[in-house]
Design goal:
single chain, alpha/beta, abc type-2 transporter like fold, 2 domains, two-stranded antiparallel sheet, 16 helices, 6 strands, elongated
Length: 365
């Protein structure tokens, strides 16, 4: 364990590493402490007023029904498509729903229509608009069966209550904020691992010459030290939730999900650094990869806003499985939690094996 302890000390004495370790927990604490999370919740709470925009290009009875159900609790501004940009820029409404032609046809043919939402910033309000519109649309799909149970589901889904939510009553919106951890975690891992691979200050090859350990054992202990350092961020995030809300839904599974994603982040950075020609190339490659994966996986915006083919591509992004696991954290199930954990574990193992194999190969040469 000598290498592990020494490497961990090297990581923690660097101020830049602490800046990234503390970055997301600090931002997250400020956001959830000051923001009012608005959602579709049950129970008594202080009602709030929200303004949404709707562009109805379908002009059908069902698209009109969707608009009217949004109007039950929200102030809805009906617009035309050319007005979207100006309306958002002038901050008249925070989120605009675009109903494309074919909305009613898709529902009558048993398909869930694709809904498009526009917002200048991703927030709890834009997430609320997306969730509400999608739930009402799914209720309309059920209505087409003309079954008594489907009618009851429609009545329940259309009775939208907009309130100030608690953690336990609307974890979905808070988990959306949590998803940004998936993007920041990669950069945290990068700066931590860069500390261990900076050979100007006595890197791994020099240390191997004086340590009675194999390259594999040294690499394993170095990787574990990097992973341990990234786990400080996870522990701080859990502490923020516990401090502000007093409870965390399924705390242990949540910790496990974030930890496995952290392990993937460490493995990805190792693979990029050890495959790239130099640290400059590694930095550029890692930034591009992490940004594409975050965009593809829905870390920056809900995947309801993207075309169907991009939603299928999202399966190949670890960020997608992180957001899926977070969204299903309130009720642990095999598909809602187990499947994301399985895929994230697979991504972590593949990247760790690739990065480790390339590094050991270089050292043995």
């Amino acid at each position: 364990m000598t290498v592990f302890i020494t490497a961990l000390k090297r990581i923690l004495i660097q101020p830049v590493n602490w800046a990234f370790i503390l970055l997301f927990p600090t931002v997250f604490a400020v956001l959830i402490a000051t923001a009012s999370f608005n959602g579709i919740v049950d129970g008594d709470a202080a009602a709030v007023t929200l303004y949404f925009g709707v562009v109805d290009q379908d002009g059908s009875a069902l698209s009109h029904r969707l608009t009217e159900q949004l109007r039950v609790r929200f102030d809805v501004l009906e617009l035309e498509e050319p007005d979207i940009s100006a309306t958002l820029t002038e901050q008249e409404v925070p989120w605009i729903l675009l109903i494309r032609p074919g909305y009613e046809r898709d529902i009558l043919e048993g398909r869930e229509p694709v809904l498009e939402g526009y917002s200048l910033t991703i927030s709890d309000v834009s997430a609320l608009g997306s969730v509400t519109a999608r739930n009402i649309t799914r209720a309309l799909l059920l209505l087409g069966t003309n079954q008594e149970a489907a009618l009851r589901a429609w009545e329940e889904a259309s009775a939208v209550e907009v309130t100030t939510a608690e953690l336990g009553s609307d974890w979905g919106l808070i988990s959306f904020w949590f998803g940004f951890f998936g993007f920041v975690a990669v950069f945290t891992a990068y700066f931590i691992i860069k500390t261990l691979t900076d050979e100007k200050r006595g890197g791994m090859p020099d240390r191997l010459g004086v340590l009675p350990q194999s390259p594999r054992l040294y690499l394993v202990q170095g990787t574990l030290s990097a992973f341990a350092a990234t786990e400080i961020t996870v522990l701080l995030l859990m502490a923020v939730l516990q401090t502000i809300y007093g409870s965390i839904p399924n705390a242990l599974p949540l910790f496990g999900l974030l930890s496995v994603y952290n392990l993937f982040a460490v493995g990805m950075v190792l693979a990029v650094i050890y495959v790239a020609k130099d640290m400059g190339a590694a930095s550029v490659t890692m930034t591009m990869l992490s940004t594409v994966m975050a965009m593809l996986g829905g870390l920056f915006w809900p995947l309801d806003f993207v075309p169907p083919f991009m939603r299928r591509l999202a399966w190949f992004s670890p960020g997608y499985w992180l957001t899926e696991g977070l969204a299903n954290m309130e009720e642990i199930t095999l598909t809602g939690y187990g499947l994301p954990m399985l895929f994230l574990t697979g991504f972590a193992l593949v990247t760790l094996l690739l990065g480790g194999w390339k590094r050991i190969q270089a050292l043995e040469e």
